[in-house]
Structure formats: C-alpha cells, structure tokens
Specification:
Blueprint lengths: L1 E6 L4 E8 L3 E9 L1 H5 L6 H23 L8 E7 L3 H18 L3 E5 H7 L12 E6 L4 E6 L5 E6 L5 H11 L7 H8 L4 H7 L16 H17 L5 H27 L6 E4 L6 H11 L19 H13 L17
Parallel strand pairs: 1-4, 4-5, 6-9
Antiparallel strand pairs: 1-2, 2-3, 6-7, 7-8
Helix pairs in contact: 2-3, 4-11, 5-8, 5-9, 6-9, 7-9, 9-10
Length: 339
C-alpha cells in the first residue's frame, strides 16, 4: 500500500511516498531556514506563504521520485495538528483537494504520532509497545506507545519545549537560527562535565516527576550573559553552551529513564524522535546511561528523519488507515490537539 504524505506544520514543506508504512519511496523537503534566519525564528505568516509557493512542486517531485502517479497511490495522509495554524491549513486544504480530485481516502495524522513513526522507517522489527521521548522546537513529551495508534502522555513540558530553549539560549549567545546545531557544534569534543561546573545551571523540579520545565533554565543562561556584560567580564561562550547542552540532556535522559523504570522495567524499548533527537550529546548520554538499566539500546532515527518530514507522516498514515482512522472533506487543522 502506497501512501502520499504531506507535512506543513511549521517551516518545512514536505511530501513523501511510503509503502506499507516502512519503505521510503521518496521524501522531499523544501526548507525555509534561510527565509526565517533573518528574524531569528519562524515567522508564521512567511511560513504560510512559502508553503503555498512550494507545496505543488514538492508533491510533484515526491510522486516523480517514487516512480508513480497520483492515481497509483492508495491514500493521502496529512498533518492536521498540532502546529502553526496558517501553515497547517495550507497542507490540509491541499490534501483535501488532492483526495477529492483523485478519489483517494484522506488520513489525518497527529504530528507527534508522526515523529514516533520515523523509527519504523529504519528499524524493520521495531514495533509497539515502547516508551517514546519526542523533543523538538515545539514539543517535549514522554509517551507510552501502546499500539501504532494508541498513545498515552506521561510527561510533557509545562512551559518551553527543549528545542525552543536551545534556540533562545543560542540566540542570547549570538548564534544564528536555528541555534541548537550551533550549540551542539560548540560543545562537541569538549569536557562538558567541566563546563557544567564552570557555569552551573539549575535542574528544574516539576510536580509531576516526568514533566519538563526549560523556561527557567533558558532564563538562567540569559542572566549569566547579561551579568557578564554589565560587569565587563569576558564570557566563555563555548563553556556556557556546553553546560547548557549537558543540563538539558541530563534532564531529558534522567526523566526518560525514570519513566521507563516505572512503566516497564529492564525490558522496556525506548525511542527518541524529533529535531532535538539529532543532538550528539543526547544520543551519547542516553545510550551510555541505558546500559546501566536496560537490555536494549535506544532507537534513534537517522539525522534526516529527526526533523519534520513527510515520510514519517506517510508511515503513521498507513497505520491510521489500517485502524480505520480516515476523514472527509470537513477535516480541519488545529494549532493544538491532545493525543
């Protein structure tokens, strides 16, 4: 079964064709980073307009590279929540038009579920149940994935997402957007334990031990920078970047492992998805600490599948279709939508 997936939840216009939820036939992404870099972050109005400009060409290229025509795909899957509402509406309405014109089933896909499906595309035997940490610019959640379509959130960010905190801290440090990759580069190869002692940062506490809070951590970095400027002191930005990265990863890994120990013991499968899953420190730290408690190593998607893409949407769309989760022409987009 071939699914055409469409993704426009933020600043990537993407389309892909995936077979049987596991095999990528094409995966096309039109990035908007250069357009938003000038403003230090995503401008929703610009994102929506660029989606309008790019979506036809991206879908045509996805079909062409997959070696199939629109009438040869079996269904059309589209991200309809959560995300930037204007951006989502472009993808949803385009997908509705395609489905109506071609007489194909329309499959709504939750963006967080799609991120979890990224691992299905690279690990043939990977399947629920498992525990999934999704970390990106807009989301930080620990989820119990009971089946391909049944998710239970057991922890989430109560303020900033991890990726958002990376970008804001990076901006304060003078790095360009998107900042997470620049912090990772600065911290790479350094002894971040020494950096974390040089610039100690808080480990925020939350009422739910599996929830996250990154707003205070981001503010602590900004205050360190401002205090150094006011005193005329030279700040070691690489060390501060290393300390910030170590602290964020320590928070994510500690809470994920504690959740896994509570919900499944040593046999629990653990997956990490989302843009921050590309962070080298997070990958190394989680892999190392899991050896102390678990029988299996964590599952990470390859770097190209960590960020927003349509292959993950098509993959999840396949399982949603198998579960009977389709939509009609009244399908709408939602900026926020609970799992």
């Amino acid at each position: 079964m071939k699914i055409l997936g469409i993704e426009t939840s933020c600043d990537e216009t993407a389309a892909a064709v995936v077979e049987d939820g596991r095999k990528i036939l094409s995966n096309i992404i039109a990035s908007q980073i250069d357009a938003h870099k000038l403003y230090g972050g995503v401008v929703p109005e610009i994102a929506s307009r660029l989606h309008c400009e790019n979506i036809i060409g991206v879908c045509e290229e996805a079909l062409e590279k997959a070696g199939c025509k629109l009438d040869e795909v079996d269904a059309i899957a589209v991200t309809n929540a959560p995300g930037l509402i204007g951006a989502l509406l472009v993808g949803v309405n385009f997908a509705k038009g395609l489905a109506l014109a071609a007489g194909k089933p329309l499959i709504p896909v939750h963006h967080i579920k799609a991120h979890a499906a990224a691992n299905y595309l690279v690990y043939p035997d990977f399947a629920p149940p498992y525990l999934c940490l999704t970390v990106s610019g807009g989301h930080s959640q620990i989820m119990e994935v009971r089946s391909y379509t049944d998710f239970k959130v057991i922890g989430r960010s109560i303020d900033d997402a991890a990726g958002e905190a990376f970008d804001k801290a990076a901006r304060a440090l003078g790095f360009p957007y998107p900042g997470g990759v620049y912090i990772d580069r600065c911290a790479s190869g350094r002894n971040i334990l020494i950096d974390s002692k040089k610039y100690p940062l808080p480990f925020p506490k939350t009422p739910n031990p599996f929830d996250f809070s990154f707003s205070g951590l981001k503010t602590a970095v900004i205050n360190l920078i401002h205090n150094a400027e006011q005193r005329g002191e030279t700040l070691d930005k690489d060390s501060l970047a290393g300390s910030f990265q170590y602290t964020v990863c320590d928070i994510l890994v500690s809470k994920l492992i504690n959740a896994a120990l509570k919900y499944g013991g040593g046999s629990t499968q653990i997956a990490v998805t989302g843009g921050v899953a590309a962070n080298s420190c997070l990958r190394e730290m989680l892999t190392e600490r899991m050896r102390e408690h678990f029988e299996k190593a964590p599952f990470f998607p390859p770097l190209p599948l960590c960020g927003d893409n349509a292959a993950m949407v098509a993959a999840q769309g396949y399982y949603e279709f198998k579960a009977g989760n389709t939509a009609n022409m009244t399908l709408n987009a939602f900026a926020s939508f609970e799992l």
